[in-house]
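Private note to self, pasted from the team thread so I don't lose it. Backbone tokens:
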């Protein structure tokens, strides 16, 4: 299987793990996108597409509107994105993305999770050099060559393209996501993205067994239970 297939599997795993915190995570991401650009979706394409994605996931309008109000200065919360890297059992590694209004609280909780299984956080780039930062899009379509030609003619390079079960899966530089979407949406009527994500994906995956797997699962669950944790990326193949 190609690289896109591995990314697709990782993406599905990560999305499932984050379901319970879907509304909170979208609210924080919408806030950050609005703060970094304009709080007006029509003037901020990243924000507009994030809101569209949230609505597709059935995030209520009042949650979206509250996040936009906070970005406009209504309310006291101010969120920041922080990323931690850590070492699990065996040769496992983890990248933990957090959206928080209190960095000291968040790092304390993340560090405590590692300490409870006698594992440790690493410094910046101690883990991430073994991961790829990618944008992933997938959608129902049955002509891979047509999509590839379409993007190349628009001057857009992609990392990988794969067709599987009537679905096209693209991986690309995250900075090209909006350009790729613009081109696809101009040429494919009512396109519906099955996967629409930017994340960190391990270059090489590993399998854990026995005690190492048990410890890893315990660590992963503790991290996922932290409200400030929005995404967990790992090099472990998970069932």
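Design output:
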């Amino acid at each position: 299987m190609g690289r896109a297939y591995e990314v697709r599997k990782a993406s599905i795993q990560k999305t499932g793990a984050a379901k319970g915190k879907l509304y909170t995570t979208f609210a924080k991401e919408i806030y950050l996108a609005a703060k970094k650009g304009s709080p007006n979706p029509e003037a901020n394409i990243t924000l507009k597409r994030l809101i569209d994605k949230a609505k597709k996931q059935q995030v209520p309008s009042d949650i979206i509107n509250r996040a936009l109000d906070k970005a406009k200065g209504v309310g006291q919360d101010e969120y920041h994105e922080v990323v931690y890297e850590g070492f699990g059992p065996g040769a496992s590694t983890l990248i933990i993305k957090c959206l928080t209004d209190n960095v000291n609280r968040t790092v304390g909780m993340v560090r405590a999770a590692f300490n409870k299984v006698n594992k440790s956080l690493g410094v910046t780039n101690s883990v991430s050099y073994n991961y790829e930062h990618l944008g992933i899009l997938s959608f129902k379509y049955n002509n891979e060559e047509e999509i590839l030609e379409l993007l190349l003619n628009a001057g857009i390079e992609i990392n990988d393209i794969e067709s599987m079960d009537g679905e096209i899966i693209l991986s690309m530089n995250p900075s090209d996501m909006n350009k790729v979407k613009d081109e696809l949406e101009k040429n494919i009527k009512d396109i519906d993205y099955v996967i629409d994500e930017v994340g960190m994906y391990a270059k090489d995956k590993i399998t854990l067994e026995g005690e190492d797997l048990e410890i890893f699962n315990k660590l992963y669950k503790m991290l996922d239970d932290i409200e400030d944790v929005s995404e967990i990326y790992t090099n472990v193949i998970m069932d």
